[in-house]
Amino acid sequence: MSAPTVAARRFLPALCLAGALPLAMSACASSRPAAEMASSAEQASAAGQTVAEPAAPAQPAPLPPRPSCNADAAKAAGLIGKTADAATVERARAAAGGHTVRVLKPGQMITKEYLDGRVNVHVDERNAIVEIGCG
Prior knowledge:
Blueprint: H1 3-27, H2 40-46, H3 71-76, H4 86-96, E1 100-104, E2 118-123, E3 129-134
Parallel strand pairs: 1-2
Antiparallel strand pairs: 2-3
């Protein structure tokens, strides 16, 4: 086969689709402009039916308050230098007002996303708290 014949056969389906698409779209088109069409209220009154007023949209529920974190409050609780056992870490979370807490050890791989309301308790090699932060 010659090169023009191969090229024509390759593009023939695309050309058919490009030609059929406007025809298919025109089948969905209205024959009258929207301004000339009767509204549902006009159609109901012509049929002798009453039209109910549309309901007012409901107000969305208010968002819950965002959790916050106050690391200074946890530092003021005298937790720096204490051993990071479960009770001390929970006291740090409660003092900071956070909803979650994580203990970060030296050299530990951590995620860098910021979560408002998360308390970060940094410890040293001896598991003593050296810093308390948020995020």
